[in-house]
Write a structure and sequence with these properties.
about 40% helix; 2 domains; 10 helices; Alpha/beta knot; 7 strands; alpha/beta
Amino acid sequence: MIAVRKLMTLTPLHRARKAAQVLGHVEADYRNGQTGASAWVLELCSAFAADESLSGELRALAAEASGEAGRTALSSPEAGIRVINRLSRGLEAHAGLSPADWDFRQPLGVGLAGEVRLVYPGVRAYLEDVRSPFNVGSMFRSADAFGVAELILSGFTADPGHPRATRSAMGASDVVPWRRGGLEALAESGEAFALELRGQPLDSFEFPEHGIVVLGSEELGVSPEAMALCPRTVSIPMLGAKGSLNVGVAFGVLMDAWRRSLANRGVEPVRLTESRPPGESLNASIS
């Protein structure tokens, strides 16, 4: 770890970038319960509190972190993470660096508990040619949150094991059952319906207890071939000028509506008691 005295001899932007990089490693240690770098962080904050090359807001943040409140926070992994994260992200922004979505770490207090996952056994989704790994990972995370029993991915949908997908999934791709499949999978999963433009408004749509929703590519939407297999289409009402949402965001909106629809009709989720290797057909037992 670079000494703070040496760090402060670097040019202003160089030391901001270097400090942000080191703080990223320190935050990773804190997330593993290791607070051994607290003295270094306190020394860094004291130096940055007097660094006139920084904005007033950043100097104030560093000054607060170098005081008694910061000392107390840095002695605790969870509280220390907040101090370190705010400072490192602030320094990145000061240095002109913008973190990508897949650079963000798992939110505090959120972990995996696959053994207690609840699902609606009849609820599935088909991802048709969703190309962005980030979107695929986001959709896995929403699928886990809203009790989707299984995701079926077309051959051209991005690999859930792609680093960007696993980063945005935050572990959900390890607990949500999924497999590859063609459009024939739609006939195996109850009623098939599409999430597309110019369909029935989400608020009045009667969601099936057993069904599969089809979501199309970011550029082309649901294919004509898939639409031909979907008797109904549902749309999210749009008030803005764009008239559409990112497919990952739209999937989350739809799944919350589907979950609420089932809950209002007294349909209860059940416990998923077994898992199976990703990429295989769903053989999990549900109790």
